[in-house]
Fold:
Amino acid sequence: MPDIPSQPPVPPTLNPGREGTDGTTTLERATQKTEPPRLYQVLLLNDDFTPMEFVVMVLQEYFRHDLDTATQIMLKIHHDGRGVCGVFSKDVAATKVELVLAAARRAGHPLQCIMEAA
Ligand code: TYC
Structure:
């Protein structure tokens, strides 16, 4: 099914015409000020109960880190209280948070996963 855009397309606005010497008017497209989409960090928070192996698995399966990187990130979270798993668009970050929380609850772990504007 095609995606339904959340907003209607914005018609191009035109600057006032620039008069030529030959009676013609040239219309110029106004500069569009489109901000780049905001990015969001997905973070895991430390707790005393979730097994280290489960956190490493989450970092590998949901954030595509290799075993060494996943282990380093897990240890950073264990020591500092929190750590960044990855940076994504808003929709992708929200989906990762939901998937990680669902996996943790299924496994009976209290792991917390949050997103923050980067
Ligand atoms: N602190 C946990 C333990 O000692 C391990 C852990 C690491 C838990 C990172 C959560 O996000 C976390 N078993």
